[in-house]
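User: Could you go from structure to sequence for me? I need the amino acid at each position, not a summary. Structure tokens:
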């Protein structure tokens, strides 16, 4: 029986997606779990896996054309089965049909038309590049053929595009000016215009919607991280350089343990009820050059500290190479934003809908403290919990944050 493949919703805020590349052609066999396409959303390019075995009977969505979530993009059939009729693939916006040389009288929003074709080789050409590298090259007008890939097997990755410097042009010889000619006055700095990327437009929309719909309130605690940092040093010394645990990994595990005791903060507000999740799938804010994404590590409550560290390291690497999976975007239930690596002491974060809360983590600093009436130096960190007041009240948020503090100040439970 034929299976309709539709544009998936890879995240709460996704409205449409674009097939950047099909890895299979019509008539080729596909296996369940096999990557068959790269799909670009407003925030990233994600590998799309087939969810059934069969034959790719028909490709409905052409590469480079935006398709609304839920619309048909392909049909997978059983071997030998006739391909059923499908609606015609979506047509490009009318504006795209205009001659390439025709000047545009006014700036056109990025979402109104498909992205302009890059001068790089086509997706099925000989140039090997990650999806995010192709998108960056297209946005910056860089020919991928001019780059040298530093990824596996010479694949061009995001950093190769970011590091690219075009060759300097040799200026034409200027006519000699009269010796007595006065130097021209310096030109006044000109105003400029920065067009927002689709990702930045999406971030603006989602954060505005979140602040408007969810009544935020904030609770801050100062945590003594001395024992947690000592535990981290011991674990890293025993695990070796390839299995290092970060401060953020400690926070993920501590939040997972606290969420087990306070499941209300692992829920979604659904109007007249809370949808409480059994698994603690914790999203981690990752800052890319193109914007902020929030993919997650699943089932953190059942993972060891070293397993969380390995999963986070892999998640960040694939976020930068543009090879995240759909479930890593759409399955998160709680989130953490850490700016400690930027030496930020404290900040508040906007809740990622439909989450009930987000924890903002600052840097670990040596601070003077009073212990038993005497002055001492301690490693402290400030953490601020942003909570949706429709889900929980201030006292509940304080108790939840105190549980995170308790776990980190007595960190042996992080190893159990």
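Assistant: Here is the amino acid at each position, in order:
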């Amino acid at each position: 029986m034929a299976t309709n493949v539709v544009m998936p919703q890879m995240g709460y805020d996704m409205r449409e997606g674009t097939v950047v590349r099909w890895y299979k052609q019509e008539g080729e066999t596909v296996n369940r779990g096999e990557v068959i396409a790269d799909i670009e959303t407003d925030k990233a390019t994600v590998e799309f896996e087939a969810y059934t075995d069969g034959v790719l009977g028909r490709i409905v969505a052409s590469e480079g054309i935006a398709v609304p979530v839920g619309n048909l993009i392909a049909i997978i059939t059983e071997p030998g089965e006739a391909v059923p009729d499908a609606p015609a693939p979506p047509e490009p916006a009318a504006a795209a049909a205009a001659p390439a040389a025709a000047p545009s009288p006014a700036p056109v929003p990025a979402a109104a038309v498909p992205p302009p074709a890059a001068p790089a080789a086509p997706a099925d050409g000989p140039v090997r590049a990650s999806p995010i590298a192709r998108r960056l090259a297209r946005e910056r007008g860089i020919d991928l053929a001019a780059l040298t890939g530093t990824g596996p097997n010479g694949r061009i990755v995001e950093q190769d595009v970011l590091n690219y410097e075009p060759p300097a042009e040799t200026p034409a010889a200027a006519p000699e000016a009269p010796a007595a000619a006065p130097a021209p006055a310096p030109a006044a700095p000109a105003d400029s215009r920065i067009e927002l990327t689709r990702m930045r437009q999406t971030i603006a929309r989602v954060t505005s919607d979140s602040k408007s719909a969810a009544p935020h309130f904030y609770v801050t605690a100062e945590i003594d991280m001395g024992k947690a940092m000592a535990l981290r040093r011991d674990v890293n010394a025993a695990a070796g350089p390839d299995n290092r645990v970060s401060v953020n990994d400690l926070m993920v595990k501590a939040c997972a343990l606290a969420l087990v005791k306070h499941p209300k903060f692992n829920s979604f507000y659904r109007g007249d009820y809370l949808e409480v999740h059994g698994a603690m799938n914790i999203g981690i804010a990752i800052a890319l050059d193109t914007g902020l994404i929030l993919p997650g590590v699943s089932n953190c409550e059942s993972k060891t500290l070293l397993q969380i560290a390995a999963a986070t390291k892999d998640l960040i690497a694939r976020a930068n190479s543009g090879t995240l999976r759909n479930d890593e975007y759409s399955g998160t239930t709680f989130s953490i934003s850490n700016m400690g690596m930027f030496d930020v002491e404290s900040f508040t974060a906007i809740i990622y809908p439909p989450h009930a809360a987000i924890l903002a983590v600052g840097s670990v600093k040596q601070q003077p403290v009073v212990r038993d009436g005497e002055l001492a130096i301690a490693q402290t960190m400030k953490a601020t919990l942003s909570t949706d007041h429709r889900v929980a009240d201030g006292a509940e948020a304080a108790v939840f944050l105190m549980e995170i503090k308790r776990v980190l100040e007595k960190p042996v439970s992080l190893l159990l």
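One structural detail worth keeping in mind: Residues 92-125 have pLDDT under 50 and may be disordered.
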